[in-house]
Design brief:
Shape: globular
Number of strands: 2
Order of helices and strands: HEEHHHHHHHHHHHHH
Strand content: under 5%
Radius of gyration: 24 Å
Oligomer: single chain
Length: 293
């Protein structure tokens, strides 16, 4: 049995957890259970809910629009993840060296991370304007015809990827920079004494010891990529002709355009399950490629 001291200790712990536990319960856990309940009904947000069981799930699994939204999300991830990681890694390696004004340069690269997505998306929509955007003007100046960017079905998602990588590379840089600074200098010095080149030192010593930070970055970036919405909604609206609509926008459209709150809730839970499965698989693969000091 738990004695009076144990009860008091548990009460103190619960008291300290309340400021975090109550918002978590009210704004995360409770809405999840609410979405699960709504997903079993046909509801347009106005009339009474009608029980449908798993019909929303079976309908969505065979729905062409949902399949296209999933493919668009995966396409976005396939471009975004390697680009944001490579750019963030390059920035981290470059800014890990000593030079005048290093702190200022680091702050400048991190500034987009704390900038509103609406501001970033509108800025890049202007820069990538097919008719009078600065990017196309620069390309035409060197004899390269500029693409249609967000106005073109083939370039709509890459346009959102460009904006996303520009905004998120600073976050990746900070995480990997912290990982670089945690690597013992003795390991790097030993590699240099053994005659390793700069590239060999990075590839054989630095990069393997950076894998814990890389793992964190990949997991966070994947979760964020699966939930992509703001930049695409502002830049393309999911168009042209639905060519860039991701899963989260499909959830939004089902709810507020088509009055299908049950289907939207079911799709949100399917997205949650997909993210959970991907994260669990990554956790299973953790020991195969992550090296700890």
């Amino acid at each position: 049995m738990v004695g009076p001291r144990g009860v008091r200790k548990a009460a103190v712990v619960a008291l300290f957890l309340l400021p975090s536990a109550v918002p978590l319960l009210l704004f995360t856990i409770a809405p999840m259970f609410g979405a699960a309940w709504i997903s079993l009904h046909d509801w347009n947000l106005q009339s009474p809910m009608r029980w449908t069981g798993l019909d929303n799930y079976t309908r969505l699994l065979g729905d062409a629009a949902t399949r296209d939204a999933l493919l668009h999300t995966l396409y976005f991830l396939g471009l975004y993840l390697p680009l944001v990681y490579v750019l963030g890694l390059a920035l981290a390696v470059g800014l890990n060296r000593r030079f005048p004004g290093r702190s200022l340069v680091r702050s400048m690269y991190f500034l987009p991370v704390v900038t509103s997505w609406v501001v970033v998306a509108l800025t890049w929509k202007w820069l990538l304007n097919p008719a009078n955007g600065l990017v196309n003007h620069a390309l035409e100046a060197v004899g390269i015809p500029g693409p249609g960017w967000w106005a073109s079905a083939g370039w709509a998602i890459p346009s959102a990827v460009v904006a996303s990588v520009w905004k998120d590379a600073g976050f990746v840089m900070v995480i990997l920079l912290a990982g670089l600074q945690s690597i013992p200098e003795e390991y790097l010095e030993a590699a240099r004494l053994d005659g390793a080149s700069a590239w060999q030192t990075f590839w054989r010593v630095t990069f393997p010891l950076l894998t814990p930070s890389s793992y964190f970055v990949v997991v966070i970036s994947l979760i964020s990529g699966f939930q992509v919405f703001d930049q695409i909604y502002v830049m393309t609206g999911g168009g042209p002709a639905g060519a860039s609509r991701p899963l989260v926008q499909q959830i939004y459209d089902l709810t507020f355009r088509y009055g299908d709150a049950g289907g939207a809730s079911a799709l949100s839970l399917l997205l949650f399950a997909l993210i959970l499965v991907v994260t669990v698989v990554q956790q299973r693969l953790l020991r195969r490629w992550v090296t700890y000091v």
